[in-house]
Amino acid sequence: MQPHHLKYATANVPRYTSYPTAPHFQPVADDRVYRAQLAGLTADLELSLYVHIPFCQQLCWYCGCHTTVPNDYARAARYVDALVAEIALAAAAIGSETGPVKHLHFGGGTPTYLQGGEMDRIMAAAGAGFTFAADGERAIEIDPRTLTPDLARHLASLGINRASLGVQDFNPAVQAKINRHQPYALVARAADDLRAAGIAALSFDLIYGLPGQTVASVVRTADAAADLEPQRLSVFGYAHVPWFKKHQRMIETAELPDAEARFAQAAAISHALEARGYVEIGFDHFAHPDDPLAAAARGHTLNRNFQGYTTDQAAVLLGFGASAIGRVPNGHVQNITDIAAYESAVWAGVLPVSRAVVLTADDRLRRDAINDVMCGRTVDLEALCAGHGRPLDALDDALAALDAMAADGLLSRTGRRVTVLPQGRRFLRSIAAAFDAYLDRRTGRHSKAV
């Protein structure tokens, strides 16, 4: 990394899985506005569903997700009762035929913490409330330590056709420091079990910036992951936020790699995966050239949502479960995070929303500029403003920051057309932040850019 690039690597900037980002959602007093939004959905709008399962068998010290370790399985079963009821509440609020569901994603936590009967109930509720496209994607996040051959077959019987496996790192010493013992053979067996069950589309999650990692060790993990031939890999930088996630205090801050080391690890993983035939998507995803994600990147239809880079083009994403975030045509909503409060709201017949944001015309313009940078690495500001019916100089407040980045070799600017250069790919979040009207870099509430 060039010394003058350090300021971009260490900048506290969002991942831009939405705009405005979640910290700028505002509290809501009740569910009336969200109900009205659901009632206004029309049958021509494609849907996506996200289902959040906030449970794990064991807490990993690095985790930044909304999850907990239940003291007994009955707690999870009660949660599924509420989840099924929430799905029915949302379907009733829509009150008419909806467009087809093209994407269904189970996230967590650990969705495979649930036993087969609970998964059956969730899928039955979703099927009763919504129409699923025959060629749609049904994806699930999996902790390989929770997967059995029987569970793999059961998931396949429910129509699950894509699985994302949490790998993080194969080094036993690193695993010990993050409280996640997961041998390579276990992950290999999980991949085999899924493929044998008919779930052939696999993705692995890797993390850099963890305690004990080195450039050499993360390359060994990347190569070992590639040996198992997943179609996609997501490579995330560890976000150390112990003031927000108290269990991260179990990780020794002094053992974390510094900014230079993090950048070197990210670059080394990228080089290793590209050498194995993967195409880099955005700044933190990789895919086989024939994978739909790579095709979307080539065809300029790549999108970004709360699961990261995606082929999902649906206008509406309905989030179910505690803390789940959804997208409706005029904004975003987030459910109550506390599980008990979430369940209480559902049993009171209330859609369990706690925060929301309604998009302004300026929000929509800046959202699209950010998405163009994050997904296509280029944006024509004049064409974008014209398409939104805005003055052609509506985004000129970003030009000073963009020109500074151009001087540092991250991008080029010709008039109001901006193109990210190869050396700027690692800093897409920092480049996109030039368009963010809400960002306060002083708060430190976001993770480091690299």
The gist of it:
The protein has 450 residues and is α/β, with parallel strands linked by helices. It folds into two domains: 21-358, tm_1862 like domain (pyruvate-formate lyase- activating enzyme), CATH 3.80.30; 361-435, Arc Repressor Mutant, subunit A, CATH 1.10.10.920. Helix content is 36%, strand content 20%.
Low-confidence stretches: none
Beta-strand proportion: 15-25%
CATH H level, superfamily name of the largest domain: tm_1862 like domain
The top-level CATH class of the largest domain is Alpha Beta
Order of the strands making up the biggest sheet: 8-9-7-6-5-4-3-2-12
Kindly state the percentage of residues in helix.
25-40%
**CATH fold-level assignment of the largest domain:** pyruvate-formate lyase- activating enzyme
Characterize the biggest β-sheet.
9 strands, mixed
Q: Mean of residue pLDDT?
A: 94
- Judged by helices, strands and strand pairing, the structural class is alpha/beta
Whole-number radius of gyration?
21 Å
Tally of alpha and pi helices: 15
The count of DSSP E runs of length 2 or more, i.e. the number of strands, is 18
Principal-axis shape = globular
Outline the structure in words.
The chain has 450 residues and is α/β, with parallel strands linked by helices. 36% of the residues lie in helices and 20% in strands. The protein is built from 15 helices and 18 strands. It has helices spanning 6-9, 32-39, 73-94, 116-129, 149-157, 172-178, 184-197, 215-227, 259-275, 292-298, 339-347, 361-376, 381-387, 399-407, 428-432, and strands spanning 26-27, 47-53, 101-108, 132-142, 162-168, 201-208, 232-237, 279-281, 285-287, 303-305, 308-310, 316-320, 325-328, 331-335, 353-358, 378-380, 411-414, 417-420. Strands 8-9-7-6-5-4-3-2-12 form a 9-stranded mixed β-sheet, sandwiched between helices. A 4-stranded antiparallel β-sheet has the order 1-15-14-13, covered by helices on one side. Strands 16-18-17 form a 3-stranded antiparallel β-sheet. Strand 3, helix 4 and strand 4 (132-142) form a beta-alpha-beta unit. Helix 5 (149-157) runs parallel beside helix 7 and helix 8 packs parallel to helix 9 (259-275). The protein is globular and about 55 Å long. It starts with 5 loop residues before the first helix and ends in an 18-residue tail after the last helix. The model has no long low-confidence stretch (mean pLDDT 94).
